[in-house]
Amino acid sequence: MAKHLRTSGDYTIKTGTGASGSNSVILDSKITRVKGDLIVDGDNTVVDTASLTIEDPIIILSRNNSAPADVDSGFLVTRGAANNAAFYWNEGDDTFKAVTTTSNGTGTSIADTALAKIQAGEPAASSDVATKNYVDTSASSFTLKVAGDDSTAITVASGQILQFVGGANISTAGSEPDTITIDLGQNLTNIESISSATSNANLTLASNGTGDVVINDTLTFSAAASTPTASAVTKIYNKTAGGGGTGLFFINSNISSGTEGELISKKKATALAIALG
Predict the structure, then answer these.
(1) Is the pLDDT reported for residue 19 higher than 70?
(2) Residue 72 in contact with residue 110, Cβ under 8 Å?
(3) What's the pTM?
(4) 3-class SS string, the chain
């Protein structure tokens, strides 16, 4: 026969002596149903059943946590003699981790002993977790091709080394981490032409400090299309030979008010010396 107990206010059951009771309350029934909210204020809740079914779609852990920098949170599996297993949020690392651990679930942190494996299905979307098989397959099908200035493409297969070899006057060196250094030699040889990159731009040869620019061979001047504009520096250029007999002219705004002059040849100089007595 069903029985009902109704009270007009709060109803408290205390066992044993003391303000909070000291003994247990045991409900021995096939089904015990709590139709209102169930709040457990003790330090430890133990569910000793063969299976646990929870209707709630979302389970909240660390509900009253107000200091996230100090609290790890997740699931821990007791494994007996072996280290326990845990899948949890590591607050210090700011990441989810699957680990084995010596922690027993008390306290607010998980002490990792080793990372644990996680198995997953093959990824279908770009945001899915990649499996080892997917990574290995993708890496094996990846082809790297490198081309030089001549546009010839070279395929770098898996396990091969891409080597940077310096040509004339260029040296290369590799160093960790992942660095290739390319140096241009100080003594340039086998150079047939040097030109500026921009149209009508100057090409400057400058020595270091008080050193000179030394030319150890024939210096050829091509015919100038026109007389250059005089400036405060001396410009030397080639034109049709005039009275100086050399065809090598110079111009400087600080010399003869910028009027060009021709370097005189030895023959002309000798003739003028004789003529002038």
Answers:
(1) no
(2) yes
(3) 0.52
(4) CCCCCCCCCCCCCCCCCCCCCCCCCCCCCCCCCCCCCCCCCCCCCCCCCCCCCCCCCCCCCCCCCCCHHHCCEEEEECCCCCCEEEEEEECCCCEEEEEEECCCCCCCCCCEEEECCCCCCCCCCCCCCCCHHHHHHHHHCCCEEEECCCCCEEEECCCCCCCCCCCCCEEEEEECCCEEEEEECCCCCCCCCCCCCCCCCCCCCCCCCCCCCCCCCCCCCCECCCCCCCCCCCEEEECCCCCCCCCEEEECCCCHHHCCEECCCHHHHHHHHHHCC
Q: Cα angle at 137 between 155 and 88, to 5 degrees? A: 130
Supply the mean pLDDT for the chain: 89
Check whether 15 has a pLDDT greater than 80.
yes
Residue 117: predicted pLDDT: 95
Q: How far is CA 139 from CA 84, 105, 143, 237, in A?
A: 35, 40, 9, 62
- Please determine, for residue 261, whether its predicted confidence score (pLDDT) is greater than 80: yes
Sign (positive or negative) of CA dihedral 170, 174, 180, 181: negative
Determine the Cα–Cα distance for residues 252 and 228; give it in Å rounded to an integer: 10
Is the pLDDT reported for residue 68 higher than 70? no
The first and second tokens of residue 227, run together, are 């007389």
Q: What is the pLDDT of residues 226-237, one digit of tens each?
A: 999 999 999 999
Query: 269, 271, 224: which is closest to 250 by C-alpha?
Result: 224
Q: What is the largest CA-CA distance in the chain?
A: 156
Cα radius of gyration rounded to whole Å, the chain: 46
Q: Which residue's entry shows tokens 């021709």? A: 262
